[in-house]
């Protein structure tokens, strides 16, 4: 299991300090949610903030674009330091073209699905993706409650991956904490995105350790 702390729940007034605290536990990714106020009802950060963090942490940037017309900004985010860019199936007119464009930047290309979007919509792009991000809350805000029906979706995706002999990672984002992380991993998740349960209170590094400790081997 890999951890991708979401800075959406970090203290933006002390962002680098919070990231450094998380860095102590060597998370595999740093999840950066980019929202435009159109595709989702919130506005967060852009490539300038990511560029400002570049070189100040050794955690690879896992950039989640919750925006319309992502193609316009992919090059800018890649140059800012993204190691993985995730786009939404629901926001991409030509999804395969967008994924290939991301790959042409020499970085990982991933795709996200909102809770109500069926896995069938990804059938023909799965061989091209590095990760599939299953949203287990409706995107836009941190601190939401995990949608229980998404366990079945994670399990189904894991089955599809195995039956087709594919090797993308399954990333899961939304409402994950020490009480449910084991169930999420057991369902098939490889990468856990956690915001409130890491940055909400207490030390981020200690909280990562607690999340990892809650997963039964």
UniProtKB/TrEMBL annotation:
One of its GO terms (biological process) is pentose catabolic process. It holds the Pfam family Ribul_P_3_epim. It catalyses: D-ribulose 5-phosphate = D-xylulose 5-phosphate. Its EC number is 5.1.3.1. CDD domains: RPE (cd00429). GO terms for molecular function: D-ribulose-phosphate 3-epimerase activity; metal ion binding. The keyword Transmembrane does not apply. Substrate binds at residues 6, 64, 140-143, 173-175, 195-196. One of its GO terms (cellular component) is cytoplasm. Pathway: Carbohydrate degradation. It is an enzyme of class 5 (isomerase). Keywords: Carbohydrate metabolism, Cobalt, Isomerase, Manganese, Metal-binding, Zinc. A divalent metal cation binds at residues 31, 33, 64, 173. Its cofactor is Zn(2+); a divalent metal cation; Fe(2+); Mn(2+). Binds 1 divalent metal cation per subunit. The active site is at 33 (proton acceptor), 173 (proton donor). Catalyzes the reversible epimerization of D-ribulose 5-phosphate to D-xylulose 5-phosphate. Belongs to the ribulose-phosphate 3-epimerase family. This is Ribulose-phosphate 3-epimerase. It comes from Thermoanaerobacterium thermosaccharolyticum (strain ATCC 7956 / DSM 571 / NCIMB 9385 / NCA 3814 / NCTC 13789 / WDCM 00135 / 2032). The gene is rpe.
């Amino acid at each position: 299991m890999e951890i991708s702390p979401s800075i959406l729940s970090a203290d933006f007034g002390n962002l680098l300090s919070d990231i450094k605290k998380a860095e102590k536990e060597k998370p595999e990714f740093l999840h950066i949610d980019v929202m435009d106020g159109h595709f989702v009802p919130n506005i967060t950060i852009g490539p300038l903030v990511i560029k400002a963090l570049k070189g100040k942490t050794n955690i690879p940037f896992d950039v989640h674009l919750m925006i319309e017309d992502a193609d316009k900004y992919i090059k800018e985010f890649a140059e800012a330091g993204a190691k993985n860019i995730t786009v939404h199936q629901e926001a991409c007119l030509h999804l395969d073209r967008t994924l290939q464009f991301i790959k042409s930047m020499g970085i990982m290309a991933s795709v996200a699905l909102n809770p109500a979007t069926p896995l069938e919509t990804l059938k023909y792009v799965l061989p091209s993706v590095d990760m599939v991000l299953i949203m287990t809350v409706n995107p836009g805000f941190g601190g939401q409650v995990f949608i229980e029906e998404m366990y079945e979706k994670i399990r189904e995706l894991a089955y599809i991956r195995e039956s087709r002999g594919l090797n993308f990672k399954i990333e899961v984002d939304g409402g994950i904490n020490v009480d449910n992380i084991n169930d999420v991993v057991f369902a098939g998740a490889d990468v856990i995105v956690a915001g409130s349960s890491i940055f909400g209170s207490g030390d981020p590094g200690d909280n990562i350790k607690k999340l990892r400790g809650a997963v039964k081997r």
